[in-house]
Amino acid sequence: MSEASSQSDFAGAPPQSASVGAARSDAVDLFELFLARTSASPAETALREKTRGLRRSVTWSELEREVSFLAVGIRELGFSRGDVAVVVGETRRRLLTTVLAVLALGGVVLPLDPRAGASSIGAALEGVRVRVAFVENRGQLDAVATFLGGAVSSIIVDGRRASGRLEHEGIRDYETVCDAGARSAGWLSYERRAPTAPAFQFVRAGERGEGARTVRHLDLIAAGAAASGLAGLGTADEVVVAEPLASSESAVVAWSAWLTSGFTLNTVEHPESAAVDIREVAPSVAFASDGALTDLRDRTALRIGAAGSARRRLFDWALHRASPVSSEASLATRPGGSSFAGWVARTAVLAPLADRLGLSRLRVVIGTGEVGEYSRRFVASLGADVREVAVPWSSHAPLRSERRDVETDTSKLSASWPPASGTVQDQVA
Questions:
Q1: Angle of helix 290-304 relative to helix 310-321, nearest 10 degrees?
Q2: CA 20 to 30 Å from 168, out of 5, 145, 202, 340?
Q3: What is the pTM assigned to this prediction?
Q4: Strand locations in 317-412, DSSP E?
């Protein structure tokens, strides 16, 4: 991709081709992938966020505008290329925009599990030099502020979810940071990252931050492209992401595939309401590990009835009639074969079960890593297929936090950001 063509696309000009594949084929870093997506599908729905029982749609152009304001606001807090930003929260819109803003500035994202305790958050922060942190609520704010203290220059808080007054001079409300970026006379100069540059750090539960695993831009772009190709993902697909980025490789792969294929990403209001949200959305594609699928099957079986009960025996019989689906099988493969018993299992038991779970439209599950036969049979019983995507970043060396160790690419691509003036409430609230 030439510098001239990149400048045109990033400034919001119409894409040179209607092909989504053409729009993303030359992307070498994750933020460039995002810009290609916003250029290819500006008016398409990017995500739907549920808040207080209502689900609101956000287009790719609206998302780009919010990210641009936030990125400029974070830059004015002193964040620059190579810095590390901690994000603590569920996979919701404001966490996703923060991740994209950090990547726009050439930073590295360290997601932490919001469902972990304060001690786990503290351990994950050991040995990591953090410039900016994003948190969703007061408990996360207290944990990050306690363990980082003066080592972090600014903490951005989602004011909708944090209780109490934010009085510390280093604490900023999310909307305040966005509005500062919207009012800024400056514009964001986006610099393309090298494909091998670090994009994320991940810390396993209970581990120290200095042992974080590095995920490069090319790793996530490759995983997202593989998932999109295997599932035939497109803008008409609906996906629910109910797990935090920090604790779920499936959520990370789904995030990358979202940028690649442009499906609608649906967030959940609370972890406890995930099942309700899935039933409301009825996703066409799911991302899950073998462990998550096994857990779903076991929880479903328990809700149906105790082992040995008539309802449970009927469920087990129907699953037994479901033909296991191999990774090479056609997406049209369905359980039960052509036998009468298979038809009964599919019609009387499995189809109503899929409808009850909100998975009646499910056509494929993207498995992160190897998916066992136990899980495959359950997915087949729901009328879907399994496709496996390798997660290639588990063996990468820890990322050193000194900025001189961060690999960069000096080719600069300028983008005329912010794309329009106004406050963030005017544009995205």
A1: 140
A2: 202
A3: 0.81
A4: 364-368, 385-389
- Give the pLDDT band of residue 186 (cuts 50, 70, 90): low
CA-CA distance, 327 to 13, in Å (whole number)?
Answer: 40
Q: What are 391-403's pLDDT values in tens digits?
A: 876 543 333 333 3
What length is written for the chain?
Answer: 429
CATH number given to 3-212+400-428: 3.40.50.12780
Q: Kindly state the DSSP code that residue 191 receives in the 8-state scheme.
A: B
3-212+400-428 and 222-389 have identical folds: yes
Candidates 3.30.420, 3.30.60, 3.40.50, 1.10.760; CATH matching 222-389: 3.40.50
- 408 pLDDT more than 90: no
For residue 173, what are the β-bridge partners? 157
Domain residue spans in the chain? 3-212+400-428, 222-389
For residue 424, the model assigns a pLDDT of 34
What secondary structure, in 3-state letters, does 366-377 show? Answer: EEECCCCHHHHH
Each residue's pLDDT tens digit, 245-285: 988 889 999 999 999 999 999 999 888 888 899 999 999 99
CB-based burial label for 324 (10 Å; 0-12, 13-18, 19+): middle
Q: Of 268, 237, 248, give the one whose Cα is nearest residue 200.
A: 248
| Side-chain half-sphere CA neighbours of 209 within 13 A | 25
Structure tokens at 30: 């994750």
CA distance 293 to 76: 43
Sign of the C-alpha dihedral computed for residues 40, 278, 91 and 257 taken in this order: negative
